[in-house]
Structures are given as C-alpha cells and as structure tokens.
Design goal:
Elements: H1 14-80, H2 83-102, H3 108-128, E1 131-134, E2 146-153, E3 162-167, E4 169-172, E5 175-178, E6 180-186
Parallel strand pairs: 2-6
Antiparallel strand pairs: 1-4, 3-6, 4-5
Helix pairs in contact: 2-3
Length: 200
C-alpha cells in the first residue's frame, strides 16, 4: 500500500467512461430537440385547424346569405311576376272606363265601336303575353283542349268535328288555362241522311 486511494475497478477505461457520458448527454439533447420539434408541429397543426375552422364559419355565413338572397328573389318574382301584364292591362281598364263615361250620351253604334276597340286592345295584350285563344269551330275535337258539352247528329259535318263553341278556351304559352266548351258532331241516326226540317 502506498497510501493513495485506489480507483475502483468499473470495467471501463477513463476514455470509455467519457464517451458514455457524452452519448448520454447527446441522448438528452436529442430528446429535448424532439420535444421542441413536436411542440412546434402541434402549434402548426393547431394554427391550421384554427384557419380551417375560420374558413368553415365564413363558408356557412356565405351560404346563409345566399339562401336569404335566393329566398328574397323568389318572393319578389312571385309577387311582381305579373307587373308587365298588369301594366298593359291598365290600358284596357282605362278604355272600359271611358266607354262607360260616354255611355250616357253615345248612341248604340258608338258604344259598339268602343267595345270592339277595347276587346281588340285586350286581345292584343293577351297575345303579347302568350295567351292564345282557342276557338275550334269546324276543327276536329281534341279532348286535351276541348270539353264536349254534348253530341249532335249531323249529316253535313264529319263525326268528331266541333259544330259550335259555347265558350272559348285559352292557353298560356301552350299550357291549357281553360278548355273550349263545344258541341261535337255525331253520325246521323241510321236511315236518315239529313235532319228533318218540318216542312210539307
């Protein structure tokens, strides 16, 4: 014994111990870097999630605004779709009122002319807005546009032809508004070529 404390045997040289301590320090540093990196990644993901949430809220608000605007447009279209037709119809009303005002002093012929002018004005307005008159006298009966009120035997007219129009029909741009009410020709009774006239 020389009086100096002996270093316990660890199985590692001094250099190996330093290297092990260095590796341990590197591991701790690496863990710290990983933790810092994970925190940064979480922050980035959170920022992206916040941004997407903000976009979602903006999209929802925009859709709600579009829905309200579309609803207003539909309501206005429903309320004011007849405005052009109503404006043209005012001229017809004016003509009728003038005719009534003049009725106390006008003669029958003048009243007739005034009524014909008003009817012509009304017909023109209706045609302008796609309202067509159905007056099928002499035409083949069409069950999609005509309503048969009765059948009348006729030797002069082919069966299934409209003989008389009780009430005219009307269509709006090809869609039926009201069918024409008509009398339709039928075959004459057997043995009779023409209807009896009642003479001697």
């Amino acid at each position: 014994m020389n009086g100096q404390a002996e270093r316990p045997e660890t199985g590692f040289s001094e250099q190996e111990a330093e290297d092990a301590a260095g590796v341990e320090g590197d591991a701790e540093s690496l863990e710290g870097q990983q933790a810092t990196g994970e925190a940064s990644e979480i922050d980035a993901l959170q920022a992206r999630a916040d941004e997407n949430w903000d976009k979602y809220l903006r999209a929802i608000a925009e859709l709600e605004n579009l829905r309200k605007r579309a609803s207003r447009d539909v309501e206005n279209a429903r309320k004011y779709s007849l405005e052009p037709f109503a404006r043209e119809l005012l001229a017809v009303r004016d003509s009728l009122e003038m005719g009534l005002s003049a009725a106390t002093e006008a003669d029958v012929e003048t009243l007739r002319e005034g009524s014909e002018a008003t009817l012509k004005l009304l017909s023109s307005t209706m045609e302008q807005f796609g309202i067509a008159e159905l007056n099928p006298e002499g035409e083949p009966f069409d069950p999609e546009q005509h309503e048969a009120m009765m059948m009348q035997p006729s030797a002069e007219t082919e069966p299934g032809t409209v003989l008389t129009v009780y009430q005219k029909g009307y269509a709006l741009n090809g869609r039926l508004l009201r069918p024409a009410r008509v009398v339709v020709a039928d075959s004459p009774p057997a043995g009779k070529d023409a209807p009896e006239t009642g003479g001697n």
